[in-house]
Known about the structure:
GIY-YIG endonuclease, 21% strand
Amino acid sequence: xELVDEKIHLWLDSARFVKAKSGVYILYDKKLEPxxxxxxxxxxxxFSKYLDTxxxxxxxxQKTHSYQRIFTENPKERQKSLLDLAKEKFGRLPSCNSENx
Length: 101
């Protein structure tokens, strides 16, 4: 169940082609359940790191199948609003987010 009206991209097919802009991203599993809502000042750099390591240090994120991304000037604020939306919509944060995110 997508959180935003942005296009859903398959992880391995298109994550390498994200622009080097600030933004937020939502990682989804195969059932399109949100796994993680994150932000980065440089989405290309963040996604490159994820692709290079294949989430080796995060078993939860290893379930990533697809993603959405939103370019924004204030990624940390946008992440917070999406986390609030997820709590409202699902009654909880995505499984890979913690209360400290």
